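Reply to dn_fold:

You asked what the input looked like. This is it:
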Amino acid sequence: MRRTTAGRAVGSPFRILLLLSSFALAGYAGVRLLDGRGTEVALWFAGAALLHDLVLLPLYAGADRLLARGLTSVDRRAWTPYVRVPAVFSGLLLLVWFPMVSGDTADRYRASTTLSGDGFLARWLLITAVLFGCSAVLLAARLRRATKRRPPAAH
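and this is what came back:
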């Protein structure tokens, strides 16, 4: 591997070819995406950035603060990941699949795939329940192990 004057590694020819190929593929996808709809895509990106920064970020930061304050025990730092992780995964699934979960695009989905667009809300709720359920089981197991390790208090 060769080194540049700044001391950073320059990749092998295969790595450079792979990188150039990925740029070419991304460029092709961008051209196809923007084909006649550049303004719509730019508005969507700007709207998504504004929605995230002005609405969603304060909402989930506030919810996280409430969670941290609500868990008043000494082990609240140990408990918060058991709520945060399933909430983040559930939120990401909702963000990605929101048009299908809300039912707004069920007709278009059926026309494109010949599959039913119904049931996405129920599936998302089921996945969310499973995520929080698994998290609760893991937390219970952790608490049980912690109580078994603790020596009995002397009276």
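The radius of gyration is 24 Å.
Hope that clears it up.
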